[in-house]
Model the fold of this input.
Amino acid sequence: MAELGEQTGSDKAAIRPFRVNGVPEAELTELRRRINATKWPERETVSDQSQGVQLATIQRLARYWGRNTTGASAKPD
Done:
């Protein structure tokens, strides 16, 4: 795994790739299956984020993770 250098200034807030190697494909397949089988709660009762992350946002992220075959990125559409 690569070593991170000292971060300074705006580098601290930069978005950088994060990769994990060595996870068996069977475990990734099981994780995807479980993500796709998620039972979702009812939609939040407010239109802002006062109750946390909006359900639609989490569902988009879960759909991305559930179909991602490489496990190399966690950035949703």
In short: Residues 10 and 16 are 12 Å apart (CA to CA). The chain has a mean pLDDT of 80.
